[in-house]
Fold:
Amino acid sequence: MRLRLVVVLICILAVPSVFAQAAKSDFFKTSDGVRIHYLEAGSGRPIVFIPGWTMPAWIWQKQIDEFSKKYHVIAVDPRSQGESDQPTSGHLPETRSRDYKELVDHLGLKQPILVGWSMACGELVKYAEQFGTNNVGGVVLVDGFLSDKPSPEMFAAISGWMNQLQQDRQKQAAGFVRSMFKKPQPDDYVQRIVDASVQVPADTAVVLIYNMIAVKDFSPGLARMNRPVLFAYQPESQPTADFLKSKLGDKLRLERFDGDGHALFVDDPEKFNRVLEAFVQSLHK
Structure:
């Protein structure tokens, strides 16, 4: 029996990739002096996860747990979000995407897969526009809104919501967070996300929204994406899927998540993880 236990222990130690690795918390400083927080776990090919508007890095926890078994996983708190610094300026998508590039360089990542959700989709397009994608293995866009031009109706609706956001930050954050899911989520989990969201100052939260919808044209960035792109989306984002297909052609792969909400990687983590794993594996071929 003792010999059998020793053999089992040796097998476990010899195959560490079977188990998720605990994420460590760390910071780096950007070229304009902002401390950016990130979570890091695992080893192997790097995958960088970037959350959306006002969201924390740990919202990717189910992906960190799964992919750190065989990959080098990094999840970022964008500036003014999570545990990162909250500067009074620098909230343009161009600046935030520069933060991600500087993190990639700081960690010496080779051919990372960049995964951006929601607002981070536009930021990754700006990343490609500024820096190209020669040192990127692939790009994963998760349920972001990208189009040729925002409609006047959409701009008006978002402008009205931005006003409400400044009047009652807690109420609007709670409503927004609950709207991200179509599958039941534990109340304490939802509250943790609301608490993380409201840590972003109201004026900063509004500026982030304005700066993204003010982008006139995503075409230059999409034109510089010379690596495979995966767009994972739910039905309400079909116009973005059509737009991306028209711009990226055969470089684009589409995965639709019917029955899931905006945070589809939380609503259906098993499917999302399978889709992402298949995409990562296809990059080796």
Summary: Residues 3-17 have pLDDT under 50 and may be disordered. Residues 34 and 277 are 32 Å apart (CA to CA). The beta strands are 24-29, 35-41, 46-50, 72-77, 113-117, 138-142, 229-233, 252-256.
